[in-house]
Fold each of these.
Amino acid sequence: MSPVLSGVLQLTALIAALALVYRPLGDYMARVYSSEKHLRVEKLLYRTIGADPDAQMRWPAYLRGVLAFSAVGVLFLYLLQRIQGVLPDSLSLGFTAISPDQAFNTAASFVANTNWQSYSGEQAMGHAVQTLGLAVQNFVSAAVGIAVAVALVRGFARSRTGELGNFWADLVRGTVRILIPISVIGALVLVACGAIQNFAGIHEIGQLTGGTQQVGGGAVASQEVIKELGTNGGGYFNANSAHPFENPNAFSNLFEIFLILVIPFALTRTFGKLVGNVRQGYAILAAMGVIWLGFTALMMWTEYAGHGAALQEAGGAWEGKEQRFGIGASAIFATTTTLTSTGAVDSFHSSFTGLGGGITLLSMMLGEIAPGGVGSGLYGMLVMAIIAVFIAGLMVGRTPEYLGKKIGTREIKLAACYILITPTLVLGFTALSMALSSPPESILNVKGNSVDGSGAHGFSEVLYAFTSGANNNGSAFAGLNANTPWYNTTIGLAMLLGRFLPMVFVLALAGSLAEQKPVPETAGTLRTEKPLFAGLLVGAILIITGLTYFPALALGPMAEGLS
């Protein structure tokens, strides 16, 4: 079988699997967030944290819940890393405490659902930090994202009230009823594939070429499944999903891609059910699907084509690709992980062709909305839908409406702030890092025309790092030594601001929409469930992103790809 055909068949199988579970999972999640009943274990959790799950919250109260819970998570995870050195060896594996700047970066990263790692997991983190700290945040940070998305959907569905539900109930339900059950099943699948699941210590084993190597154990399968399902991305090992302990074979690789995509895509069905019009969900799904499929096809083409005689003779750009998976599977994984806020990798993004690396960058720059992270992809796409409706209203001279709500001055200002905050963080921190004297010294793998970090590839590495951090992705070109006080601090700030500032605007927008009374449809109402609107939405996303980031992309991956 040819490598190209193998990649196409894997992509077809993946689409079929997603289509099979789309409706039942989407309907189930809609029932979870609309049910008035509480499970016994949920009632116990509410009593433990002192929350009243039936109390309705307006958007400021909902936001305070999000920020307070996340702040406690950052503090707890930071302290857990700092005391690792005094924990028993069975919990710490003998590792010392994490340095203050790296502990801050890691705490910010996992609470922000980014999972950027400036450390090697098998050489720095013991069982306590991995399971009690990082794995727990994989669950709850994902649940926070879904909760905020559901709050925005309620803003569209409700009228003449500012109430958006209860954050604590949404958080607990997302964790207990959705993430944990799927993770249990997924972990069993990964164990059956060969992923490890234990609490073993570090073993020294012999190598075929002589010498020894230290190999650590851990609860890898259980953390691997939630890192993908929750679009987190942080790996137990430095090689992430290219490591055979995390991702043993071609089937597990395809299964992990499925886990990354299943909830973000299915949430569009949940959206349609909650607003009472499933065709609206199909329109959002269509926009997400067109972008994801288009970027995946483009990535496969550029990596298979491979400019140059050596790459063509090899059958494609094999550098940095896992031989177990091949170019096609690596291309699908790369676009999937960067179009979502996952950041897991099964190949070396820095070794992709210049255009292939540019696709991973552009995928994140879209705002990771196709289909995006769990929750964050849906609310990001809905904000872009509001922008698209506004543009359509300007073209026909009509007050824009979406799902029976008028898009007025307040709503469009909040939407504009949402789409501007992330580019400001990305371009601002990148400019500072290239302008100052010391940060460019962290560029270790320069493919440009200079050894001081000023080459096109060196610039791409820095741009990629802050794009990944501010968009809560977590993947890296990996030619950048990000474990320095400058990058640990600035990327940590980019992750926190890039996660929670947009949530402020999303929840404020939800509250504004919920207070409105519904606007009846007329002959002039834009039909947002039609293919025409889905096309308009895709066009708006690509144009806005292109206008925002084109100069930066021209200096980095485009210059490298054309050189």
Amino acid sequence: MTEARPGGAASASLWERDAELAVVTESVDALRDDSSPTEMGSLLMFGGEAGIGKTALLAETRRIAERRGCTVWSARGGETVTSVPFNVVRQLLQPALVSLMPEEAREYLGDWYEVAGPALGITDPGERQADPQGVYDGLVAAVSRLAKREWPLVLLIDDAHWADQETLRWLAAFCERLDELRVLVVVARRPGEVSGESARHLDAIAAAARRPVSTLIALTPDATGGLTRATVGAHADAPFCREVWAVTGGNPYETVELLAKVQDSQLEPVESSAAELRALNRSARGHGLVARLEGLGIEATRFAWAAAILGTGITVDLVARLATMRPAEAVRCAELLSAARILTEPDPANRQADGGELEFVHPLIASAVYRSIPDGLRTAMHGIAAQVVTDTGLGAAAASRHLLEVHPDDDEELVEQMREAAREHLAVGAPEAARRCLERALVEPPLPEVHPHVLYELGCATLLTSPATTIEYLQAALAMPGLEGDDRVSAVYRLSQALLHNDQLDEAIRTVDEEAARLEPGPSRMRLQAVHYMWEGIHAAEEDSPARSRELAELAATCTGRDNSERALLILRGFDAMTHGESAEEVVELCDRALVNGRLAPGLGWTDSAWGIELLLMLGSAYAYTDRLDRAESLFTEALRAYEAAGWSGGHLSLAHAYVGLAHRRRGRLRDAETSLRESLRLAERVGRGLPLYWSATCGLVDTLLARGRVDEAWSIAERYGFAPPYPSTIVLPDTRSVRGRLLIAVGRTKEGVNELEAAEKACAGRGRNPVLAPWAGDLARALVADDPHRAAELAATARQQAEHLGTDTAIGEALRVAATLETGQRAVALHARAVTYLESSPCAYEHAAARVEYGIAAKSVAELIRGLTLARSCGADGLVARAQEVLDHGRGLR
């Protein structure tokens, strides 16, 4: 049995906790063991009902860790502050960060300083809406870097069931990284207290532990007897001790409080006094606690109520302002409540960075006091608290927690405060908190002329997290009068973007068309026309493609590139011409006209919200498939740098990696391509399967693995990530059916592969696709050469005709490679030689290597095979290397 100091509440709650303390000690010792060559952190989670001793166990964990030389950071959730984003993670990290000089903090956090700093409250947020995923990644990186500085580090999080959702999401992500870090995380929570996203995050945190959740149980009668005698004296008799256990049910907190009341009342701990224990226990909790508080006087009660309203950052000065009492009276009340074991000063070793001078002795007391405030008064006090917080300069976001509790009252000022709070929340990466503020503003409600703007802001706040919710809010905003001009056009664009992300592409196009039809000719109408063509341009199931292309060509012919609407139309026309396999020179000329001195125009950058990522990906793709890979790679690399610098690590960064991977793949840098595409797929997994960005990553990775000759791995990726029909409604680069058809043939499922390539032929019929973008014809010709040579020859001829129309060295060289596979003898050798000539001038090194190896085999040339082998090795094309090496090793007939 764990020994306890008489009268010590913390240690009293540690009776019968030997097993849990042994696990804690073992985990701390393992953390400090630097003999292990690998870094490995761990997670402990303790659960149990209120008052069961979780807080005391974490306090003892702190003492154990600190005695062994560990750095300990701690934080605690609060029932009344769950709506405050990043509240608990700020408690956890701020003490360490504010102890650093700003230069030191920047050094340790590096590029993540500007991303995670605003969420932690150590630096001001930027003007742009922060990417939530980037913020969480930044927080993970921040703790990871600080952990190496502060090793051995122990993180304690109490009452995790009351932690804010943003903290729980961060903690779930951080716990996934514990295998890489020497950090011990200890979490305490009550079961069954939360639902929804918070419950999901808590489950993910628990799943990261190597041990099952340890559920604390009530004290046994023997332990309760030992605790009773240790507290009130060894002369406490057995019937009295037994009644203490019966009254409290062995709950450590209730036992400690009851025994404190026994001491206060000077009750003799003998059988004749046992009948009074139940009345004493009632006074120590619930209504009894409230009665005890009221017994301290109205001033002390008002002080306690005000402290409960504040919830965190409790100072005597703030409480005095909220309770409207003089400073001297406030100090007296704080002392009185401290003597009554309701409020206490925080342990100096565990003091948080919220500026609080006081805290409730136990969360149960805080909850009981808060709930004891009459409803109407509690609401009014929250309103006053909002004003007090605002007056102290803490900002609209800090005040919004209180304003959320105020009854609607047609208050224009409250609406504006909540809108400002939402902007602050968005700037630190807390869109859910912003949504709550704006939805509360709607309830007020806003003035008619303001109402659609609040709905528009709500739609923007949820765009990154819930396209379906965004659609609802933006449609409502557009249906109301008051949203006009640029704001209305932007709302229509955002709505169409949300519809696209929600796989409602047809509806997105209709929405844009209806709004464009009501506008007079000018920049706004041209912008929506460009959006129309942008969405149609990425529509995989596009109908009447020639007519659409003619309309776009006619519109683009009037554009000089004088503003971004015209530049967008030039890009769209260039992309359309590229997908249709029109002259590469004309495609490049159109795209170049959309640039300003060879650069993206202001307002048309990767992180600018007016146009979005899709347009610029189309620009880079147009360059990539017209052999201007230097320009494509420059654009995609710029996107990657821009998103990393801005801390965007969600879907935008996933697409940037995918398209950088595309550029590497086209250049023949297959190892680099695989690395980029795997990172893209990792990021896409966090965003959600089934989205277009997920297909881009998967398709690109399968294509690259096939080029590397790693067929089994390509098949495994396809199976694991669902790379199979049905395909998305948007275009994916490279063409999904072409890649899957090639994959099926490579794994020996030739008939299925042929069917897939024929489906690609039908899908591409409306577009007349670029033969490099959608190389189904060449792959289908190779597959049919033995069984249907006539059909194969027709396909090869079509591919060659399309390649010559496009006019790039890559397209013509690839078409000649296909034609050569259908021939024999010197005719085949001559075609292989011509293919090498074209691909030698192409920027696509893998295709050049393949052509060299094929030419070497056809011509039986050692020199050509060695050239091809060298190129294949530099590309990382293992299958091609093996093929060339095998021919060289056998050497029969080689010259």
Amino acid sequence: MSDKKKAIENLGRRHFLRNSAVTGVAGAGLAGGFGAGALMSSREAHAAENGIEIAPGELDEYYGFWSGGHQGEVRVLGIPSMRELMRIPVFNIDSATGWGITNESKHIMGDSARFLNGDCHHPHISMTDGRYDGKYLFINDKANTRVARIRLDIMKTDKITTIPNVQAIHGLRLQKVPHTKYVFANAELPIPQLNDGRDLDNPDAYYTMFNAVDAESMEVAWQVIVDGNLDNTDADYTGRFVASTCYNSEKGMTLADTMRAERDWVVVFDVEAIEAAVKAGEHETLGDSEVPVLDGRKGSKLTRYIPVPKNPHGLNTSPDGQYFIANGKLSPTCSVIAIDKLPELFDDAIAPRDTVVAEPELGLGPLHTTYDGRGNAYTTLFIDSQVAKWNIADAIRAYNGEEVNYLRQKLDVHYQPGHNHASLTESRDADGKWLVVLSKFSKDRFLPVGPLHPENDQLIDISGEEMKLVHDGPTFAEPHDCILLRADQLNPSRVWSRDDPFFAETRAMAEADGITLERDNKVVRDGNQVRVYMTSIAPQFGLTEFTVKQGDEVTVVITNLDQVEDLTHGFVMVNHGASMEISPQQTSSVTFVADKPGVYWYYCSWFCHAMHMEMTGRMLVEKA
């Protein structure tokens, strides 16, 4: 063995972890702190050397969109500064913007507004010809089986869809070419079909489905029943194939049951065949849902099942479009699947394992792989608390029997990394500049804040031959994954357009009431429903007083007439649980019940003017 190979293999922490790797994944992380102090002391030097300091007034080169984990939101960061720029509420309640409180947001959330939680995992940006087009970002909610769409011009959620017939949407990816027609979403947990009380104690009758959501209408286009379960997924660069990992081919109902098999599989879906089957009527519907449901279990012409080791997790497409790479989790290996062999597989000309062209051994707990666009892959090793850099072509040569070292470097990260994401890596344009690693534990990296610790997002420079860790960033509530694109690939609005569909229903209500939103400050009564229309322009509301009766349902509609960028107003009705944001040229509305007589002040909650504190008004509630 060469000295270089020995050095690479000895870089790791595995000698700390060998005795604990089998007995506990999280416990193994407690050994990860050795040597952390020395690395911390050199962090500022690394930052200066790699030029990540963004001076006051300078702008970042990349946008990063982070899932908000079980906070249920999406977070926007600048890269490489790692500065948090914005939080976009999606499945959560946010009193600052009024998300989940305003009528506009409740309309978007629909029936699922009754859920007060969300669990976001995988944010992904729409594409045209395999390149980010900056139009939409999509995000899943594992907790309540939903998929949401965010408009990137206004950075607001505009559609939320609940997926029928399944539970726990986890893996989510987008069709890359010719454009994002579909959002592909994996339902992770098998349930009885139908799930109406039948087959409760009969797991053999449990199934889950691969789901396709129309990216424009956000309606579920079709569903495909599979064997086993579904975890992570990704699409190819032809538009035909999508692949998903399965870690529970056993359909086990307990931890031990899910670990019995030495191999699970990657299931590959033929999108063109599925579309043809839907068109030909080769499907059924389940229960009250009208969504076409197709059978993709073993033996179906719609799917193929490729055995891979053991409890695989991440599934990532290389930016050159040649490979799906499945990460082993309970195997130290990744399985490299050649996409150009998949047509032969679907023609039954080759065996499923013939599509596997490499299976490099990387370390303990490989979870996710990302790429630099130069032929190298970067895989997180959860148990080893490392990122392994390896060369795909060399791994294929080694699989074919050549004596070649495919490992390039292993870098310690802190600690227990899950997802990683390199700049532009899920598009054709992967540029190999920055790598973000989202670590599940932070332990000794930050000031202690009690028993609940933050997670640790780390920034790594991958522009040279060696990876260099240059930044730690504490973050809250397990942001699960992120995606990076160049700043010039987005064009966010600076002020709202007055005809924006986001508040179209509110505009229609005003028109029915004979109100011109840009001018009128009036109260409209309809029985015990009162609609209060007012404008705002710093530092005053158009109405500073209105009167209602006890028990009235009050809807306050405010139109911000300010046209100055960044001049946002807020509205808070004291002691009524009502608050909302009204950005320049936006219309927002909120509804509440005036249940107690008396005087109730309202005020602007977003600082807007030197006289901001004086921007107030009164609601006078008369006794019933």
Amino acid sequence: MTSTDVRDEAEDSGPSGYAAARLRLLTEGARSGPPRRAALAELTDGWLAGLFTAAAPALRGASLIAVGGYGRGELSPRSDLDLVLLHDGSDPEAVAALADRLWYPVWDLGLALDHSVRTPAEARRTAAEDLKVQLGLLDARHLAGDLGLTAALRTTVLADWRNQAPRRLPELQELCAERGERQGELQYLLEPDLKEARGGLRDATALRAVAASWLADAPREGLDDARRRLLDVRDALHLATGRATDRLALQEQDQVAAELGLLDADTLLRQVYEAARVISYASDVTWREVGRVLRSRSVRPRLRTLARERSDFLRRAVAGDGRALGGGKPVAERSPLAEGVVEQDGEAVLAPAARPERDPVLPLRAAAAAAQAGLPLSLHAVRRLAATVRPLPTPWPAEAREQLVTLLGSGRPTVDVWEALEAEGLISRLLPDWERVRCRPQRNAVHVWTVDRHLIETAVRASEFTRRVSRPDPLLVAALLHDIGKGWPGDHSVAGEIIAQDVAARIGFDRADAAVLAALVRHHLLLVETATRRDLDDPATVALVARAVGTQSTLELLHALTEADALATGPAAWSSWRGSLVADLVRRVSAVLAGDLPEDPRAPAAAAVTAEQERLALESVATGGPVLALRAQTEPPAGDTAEAPEGPEPLGVELLIAVPDQPGVLPAVAGVLAVHRLTVRTAELRALELPGGVEGSVLLLDWRVAAEYGSLPQAARLRADLVRALDGSLDVAGRLAERDAAYPRRRGVVAPPPRVTVDPAASRHATVIEVRAQDAPGLLFRIGRALADAGVRMRSAHVSTLGANAVDAFYVTGPEGDPLPGEEAVAVARKLEETLRG
């Protein structure tokens, strides 16, 4: 059945026929796409026109108009019907009766309706007062009634828009910017709003309005296709949810992907991100052009006045020999930036003498010059480069590599210039491996960017640390490549090492530098993972890092890359606490690389004990029970403090606990904190030998906690509950179970199952068991109880929470203080994993 047949059936059968035809179109038709949207609009047009004709066969001076998305023919399954009943004001009572006979059938079918009844004068007045109304009327489309009335309104509204454009376009730009700030950037969000986020359907509509003003036009290539793809996704989302929603929630993404015939949710997100990137870039270019045009219009009258005054002055100042006095030199329209690159009208453009077809380094030189000058790279320049430039030879000439390093080291302006090159496909031509990470989503709450944008953000951060290293070039290129392996299966660090080696050779690094780059990519997580999950007092930990790094210069580069990577990941990935741990590890590794080894490499170095820790430990021995202290913790903002908000960043509270060494301390403390609804951000546990011949050993726990909500409990109450937990009179497990039963689980992201592994090379003095799991209340209590039930002794623990992920390392031994035999260690890890999965 064709769309015309469906429309005829709907017209013949009235509302019920329309409803049946609409349902058949949405359930039996083709997949989401322009044909189905057009068919749905045509079907709805016919039904509404029939309602209009039946309700007012003889009424003149009235018409029914579709506006907004419906006016454009973009009807998704659950879209509102945006309608205006236009009339000349001659018969208000008849128009009111007509409105009732139009609106009520729509409501009776449960369709969303956005409607108004206006005269042309009222419509113009409302449009002048409300920008959103004016934008909707720009897409007005006649449905029924007096065609002349509709045509006159369209002509008038369009003329008003063009006349008022110099005033209204800045208002529209501000509206778009505010919405983008509020909703975020569509091309990076895991649960984006397809309509409201920056780069979404609202921005695409705004670009149409700019084009209608005749002041500027958006880059057309790819824009219509990007808009179509977002509309297709919205159609599938409406069918999957049965709701008029624009939010692409995680739990609907697989179903939406299936509706569109895509492989999986990641493929869906990548297509959404690519479309959003096209619209965002087109918006940037268009608003920049609008600003240029408006500035030139405001300057032109002043220039004409100055030109007249200067001409009069020259006529009066002509000397006897015919030479003009005080003529002055006209201001140059172009300022040179680099060979073949000039500044013009606030953009970096190609010089008239530039020959891209003879100069393969020109794209990188132009990009580096633009970024260094803090200027955008003009659309015309990028397109000319993409169309005419020759490929670079392999290996690259030295100038090309230097220009790439200059671009990467230019700081924040690098982002916009890089995106301009990427919009025309130049990045993938320069670095073919980039295509695998372009627009690739990262389903990790810690990451705020797609893989490719994260790599650029890391380079921006690394540019702040180039004074800390002796060789900035490998640092910046490693920042660009450190996650390049995420486009390949397996461990991205291992895959990335191979790719980095190849890229380094291709862009002209010698063999030694290529090996350093590959090592940086291979080990870019080594420092932060070791510092936060391993016992730094164990010489085996430091020796392992030293062997992997190899040289002082590589360690220096890796330290800077680690910090840049973490800062570019998101706020949960870096803090002064993590920074201090990494710095401590780097100091120890540096000492080993310099040959400064402990006298007995088999024995761990004694950790420094603060006066407060010693006081708590002695008091714990004296009282025979736990002693604790609470202390508020703050830190300065991470990153560039000049751009950060003033004031310290709250870290929660530091909780110091000293307790005589005994089984079950970890689950007891973790359980009491969970009962009191305290979230554990980081935790350290270690055994402390007391000074001065004091007998007995004490377990020292250093925790950073925050109240889940409300205020922190008093220290005395925490201590009392801890005493009860240790002697068994407080049923922690029962209390937690009761609380879980009282609060049903919320629907949300399905987390991957927990994973427990043994790292046999991490220590010679203990068995290291590492746990990776979804963070949840009571998780640490369950881990500690499972280890206690296994009969192992806890030598130390290193707990960290990254977003929704807990990554914990536990140094355990047998009853006699020796590492667990291999099979026993594996059995303990397997049992712990089963417990956490159960």
